[in-house]
Amino acid sequence: MSRKLSDNGIDGDDERDQEEEEDSVEEVEEEEEYEPRLKYQRMGGSVQSLLSSDAATCIAVAERMIALGTYGGAVHILDFLGNQVKEFAAHTAAVNDLCFDAEGEYIGSCSDDGSVIINSLFTNERMKFEYHRPMKAVALDPDYARKSSRRFVTGGLAGNLYLNAKKWMGYRDQVLHSGEGPIHAVKWRTSLIAWANDAGVKVYDAANDQRITFIERPRGSPRPELLVPRIVWQDDTLLVIGWGTSVKIASIRTNQNKGVNGTYKYITMSRLNQVDIVASFQTSYFISGIAPFGDSLVILAYIPAEDGEKDFSSTIPSRQGNAQRPEVRVVTWNNDELATDALPVHGFEHYKAKDYSLAHAPFSGSSYAGGQWAAGDEPLYYIVSPKDVIIAKPRDTEDHINWLLQHGWHERALLAVEANQGRSELHEEVGSRYLDHLIVERKYGEAASLCPKLLRGSASAWERWVFHFAHLRQLPVLVPYIPTENPRLRDTAYEVALVALATNPAFHKDLLSTVKSWPPSIYSTSPVISAIESQFNTSSMTDHIKEALAELYVIDGQHEKAFAIYADLMKPDLFDFIEKHNLHDAVREKVVQLMMVDSKRAIPLLIQHRDLIHPPEVVSQLMAARNKCDHRYLLHLYLHSLFEVNPHAGREYHDMQVELYADCDPKMMLPFLRSSQHYTLEKAYDICVKRDLLKEQVFILGRMGNAKQALAVIINRLGDIEEAIEFVSMQHDDELWEELIKQSLNKPEMVGVLLEHTVGNLDPLYIVNLLPNGLEIPRLRDRLVKIVTDYRTETSLRHGCNDILKADCVNLLVKYYKEAKRAICLSDDVDQARSRKSEQKASHLGERVMSMKSMEVKSKTRGGGRCCICFDPFSLQNVSIIAFFCCHAYHTTCLMESTISVGGKKESGAASKGTGSYYESDNGIDDEEEEYDDDDDDGDASSGASRMRCILCTTAGG
């Protein structure tokens, strides 16, 4: 099915063929639609006004301008937009053919008036040649502007092909060929001139002045006057011929080949004057124009009317007003159609095949590599009808992309944009249309995933689509792809996205990950927090949204609220969060959660801050959590740690602890019972009996005073005689020993062990005498030997200890006696001297003086603060005092006088009796006994005082 030109960018007529309107949808679906190769537009500018009063007959294209010939004989020079640049009113009849030279400086035209006119486009030069018969074709030498020969070829109805050249005597015509009917077309390329007449196509080599080939007219083709043959040079050696319904491509081989540096070298004619038909095929339409299209061909096709006549060989549809639209077809050399476009030419219903023509602009430098022309070098095709000129040119990347978009192939369009690095505006347009297509198809997830690729760094585009997705209630699927930088959007866009996630329970997990990943600085937390808090105590409040709310609280600085949520969620990093933000006060209400998260970290925290989190609060919360966790084990751990830190801190719970120890950690029961004083013995005993904790029963019975019952438990239940012996030894009760012996007599092994532990406790003979006859005691001999050995060792140790004790007593008594004999001198001089020597001695001496002053004399003569000689109070006389350990004190002067007087008497008596004086020095005092003696420098009084004796005691003793 042919495509209408309106599909390619030109507004077509309002008329539509009835057959096309009745095509079924099934036929359209079965037909594979090909992308057009060309795009079309009507030539604007001055063309419409020029053709309103005239009709176009032919066109020629140069690199810089276009020449349009009319039925009125005018030649219009136009720019590529269709604006008239110059006009030559050269002919009086229809212009049949136009030709530019290679430089585009001259334009040649021929007309039915029999003239050929060559005009210079940039000067006033104008040449006119009269041939007196209608001229149908003209071709200028490509080098016309550069050569002085000014050659051109022309031909017409007279049947002669003229080669006109400027000689030294003027312009001369040379007939190259004649006698085979009118000349219908002529084309000149390099030195090769190709023309068509009634017989066929011939090629002449102007460089050698020789005709080199002949291509016969296709059989069955219409008469040339009805359908003009079309010939065009594709390159220097390829000649494309379209005649009737036949296409031939001839490869011309001449006697010249390109040499080095672009020069030509000639070789012998015998080898190379040949032509090869490299392609040939028949068409189902008439050829109104033909031109090369890269490796393919562009054919202007005239479709004959369907009047039942299928043989196009001799006739042309003649019915007026019933012609079909001309078509532009792109075909390969094998006649494979690549594209077909129907052209809405004005008045096409009344035109015949010969009324159309096709010209193209193969500019120098054009390239067609890999199916694409270089930018700016694309060929242009001009389709001419009497009242219309249509320009066709290859579709570029943007056209390709637009065509893909029109047909819904958005992904291929995107790939094409990326591959060709198209304009950013084009990329945005493709992206927007692709997204619109996906949204219409309700493929929201796919659309969201493509947004980073399609929207790239456009903040405005991102924001537009964020709000569009929000309007569609599909924003959650876009959130993972929203950029946070490069570009960064407005705060509102991020807040709307987070609120959309918060209000949809299916995306609460995505909300959490988004809050964690997005920088807090790009949005305000208040609207998001409000949206989440409104869902409290509803079924949509999931753990993920709770954690997201906690994260938002942290961002907002509300750490206590965040902690409360983290605690309910029992996050592993809860303790680090507490330490980081110093939230110990907030822990009071979340004890159970902390213990369930990590009791090893929770318990030290609770105990360390027990001044804030009181033990009763901890215990009450754990007791209330009996349905949530193993509250008894957690209570045990907490109370045990609390007891180790402070045994009295949780004393009201010690009864509970006894039971907890029994259930959770029986090994620690006995140390607790020994350390605590705040549990009820009866309750503890009942618990131990129920749990069959024997050692604990023994300890409690011992504390309760039931030593015999405890001993019975040890012997009968534990069967540990050593434990029993140790228990009895600690009780210091002889009756228990009797009970132990009594209960052990019937157990030989226990008797043996008891014998081993009797030394120091019991008399072994006493036990042996109580043993019944015939009782077999294991290892009795060894045990008896041990008993005897231990007894001898104990006896020897006792004797040695007694000897040491006696010696110590004697030595201590002697020391005491010598200390008691010493006197102390109480005087200000002595006190000052002693204080100067040692503060320690002064302090010690002062204490002794004060004790002496307050001491009462426990003798028949009491001092009472008086001198024992003069009986005056010590305070009346400012005289030093001498005190003795016997509690007698004297004035120093009184004691000295009494000593002298008594000494005199004694000396007289001593001479006869041989006794010593009272103030003789005591030579038996050791150095260490001089502890309270003063140095010799302290004065005679003090030194003498240390050797004095109490007169009263000495006299009484005498």
UniProtKB/TrEMBL annotation:
It is found in: Cytoplasmic vesicle, Clathrin-coated vesicle; Late endosome. InterPro entries: Beta-prop_Vps41, Clathrin_H-chain/VPS_repeat, TPR-like_helical_dom_sf, Vps41, Vps41/Vps8, WD40/YVTN_repeat-like_dom_sf, WD40_repeat_dom_sf, WD40_rpt. The keyword Repeat applies. Residues 10-34, 923-940 have a biased composition (Acidic residues). CHCR repeats lie at residues 606-753. One of its GO terms (cellular component) is HOPS complex. Residues 1-39, 905-944 are annotated as: Disordered. GO terms for biological process: cellular response to starvation; endosomal vesicle fusion; macroautophagy; protein targeting to vacuole. Residues 867-953 form the RING-type domain. Keywords: Protein transport, Repeat, Transport, WD repeat. PANTHER family: VACUOLAR PROTEIN SORTING VPS41, VACUOLAR PROTEIN SORTING-ASSOCIATED PROTEIN 41 HOMOLOG. Required for vacuolar assembly and vacuolar traffic. Belongs to the VPS41 family. This is Vacuolar protein sorting-associated protein 41 homolog. It comes from Nicotiana tabacum (Common tobacco).
